[in-house]
Amino acid sequence: MVKAPEDEHPVKAFGWAARDNSGTLSPFHFSRRATGEKDVKLKILYCGVCHSDLHSVKNETGKVTYPVLPGHEIAGVVTEVGSQVTKVKVGDKVGVGCMAGSCRSCENCTNDLENQCPKMVLTYRSKYFDGTTTYGGYSDIMVCDEHFIVRWPENMPLDAGCPLLCAGITTYSPLKYFGLDKPGTRVGVVGLGGLGHVGVKLAKAFGAIVTVISTNPDKKEEAIKSLGVDSFLVSSDQDQMMAATGTLDGILDTVSAHHSVQPLLSLLKNNGKLILLGVIPKPLELPVFPLLAGRKIVAGSGIGGMKETQEMIDFAAKHNITADVEVIGMDYINQAMERLEKADVKYRFVIDVAGTLKDA
Ligand code: NAP
Ligand code: ZN
Ligand code: ZN
């Protein structure tokens, strides 16, 4: 017999979940497993609101089963550890990102690429190895294998730091892998949202010269003044786009909706790389001539492994990089999702989970 989410495990838990593709979130009682030998139990303090959460609650990728309890930018404090846990202790600040499990033995896992493991378990909306559904960080507590726990740097704030667990690693990993982490590299960032603004900060810390390509001219002044963006292109302005033809070594494309990549390919130098990060269910149209003529590369990248996630957050702490956040209460989440849909946030909503989640 299939057990109700409340009865699957011994530990009572509470959060907010979507029940159907309206995406509306509401209070939800469920349960967490007892803390196993290698598990860490944490009290969730803050959780970022990633656009993937919005895609998921609305089932825009067509892969989810409800209820969906999102949240994969989780910061909290350890309340219990299993007998075999060595990474952290009770009272430590920790993070949990997009992954809650992987096989740990395949070629990807042994190369610190758990994110590419065929058996990778997402922090929410996946099946865990025990057959139960994973539920994310819009909730009071979590139990997670220590391998998927991130140690929290001392000087990193929990609220402004938690978005790094997805937005940070998703932009850090391709900057490094595709060689866009060298001083003087000309990096473009398309879409100045959660991922985009963190990508800008990381690229700047690597010493890159950063161009933002945005649909919204109103973001220009602040992008230049407070994010240190070197150049800002409004994607609908043909003259600006034309003038920047062939200027970029690489582009992180963080756009969350269907769009044309042709103008972006034009911005690349020969041998330049367009790296797609947005979760876009419908295929994009790919013109081949600019690729042939300029030996350009179109690639994709998905989050990053655990070792690199730790490296990223330590790098961010060293360079005083956090996300620019609007901290909200749990009961504001549905309005926040509506605003996120319209790109009306600078630049990441973060839920004050511990301060505002009240058991119904
Ligand atoms: P976000 O905060 O909503 O930012 C996306 C930005 O894209 C917006 O701020 C907007 O920037 C731009 N944009 C939105 N709609 C657009 C449209 N129709 N045409 C052109 N530009 C548009 O989202 P996010 O949390 O950064 O996530 C971005 C995407 O990455 C989502 O699809 C998310 O699911 C995905 N994601 C992927 C990974 C991965 O591992 N690859 C990880 C996390 C998230 P402007 O106002 O500046 O134009
Ligand atoms: Zn995310
Ligand atoms: Zn594996």
Structure description:
- Strand 14, helix 9 (289-294) and strand 15 (297-300) form a beta-alpha-beta unit.
- It is built from twelve helices and 17 strands.
- The protein is of the alpha/beta class and 360 residues long.
- The protein has helices at 51-57, 107-110, 158-161, 167-177, 194-205, 220-225, 238-243, 262-267, 289-294, 306-318, 333-341, 353-356, and strands at 11-18, 25-32, 39-49, 74-81, 93-96, 99-101, 121-122, 141-145, 149-151, 186-190, 209-214, 231-234, 248-253, 268-276, 297-300, 325-328, 348-352.
- Helix 4 (167-177) crosses helix 5 (194-205) and helix 4 (167-177) crosses helix 10.
- The model has no long low-confidence stretch (mean pLDDT 97).
- The structure holds NADP nicotinamide-adenine-dinucleotide phosphate and zinc ion (2 copies).
- Residues 50, 52, 72, 98, 166 line the site of one zinc ion.
Bound molecules: NADP nicotinamide-adenine-dinucleotide phosphate, zinc ion
How much helical structure, as a percent, in the residues?
10-25%
Count of DSSP strands: 17
Uncertain spans: none
- Could you report the average pLDDT, rounded to the nearest whole number? 97
Number of helices: 12
Helical/strand content category = alpha/beta
H/E element order? EEEHEEEHEEEHHEHEHEHEHEHEHEHEH
Strand proportion = 25-35%
Rounded radius of gyration (Å): 20 Å
Based on Cα principal axes, name the global outline: globular
- Biggest sheet character: 7 strands, mixed
First-residue to last-residue Cα separation: 27 Å
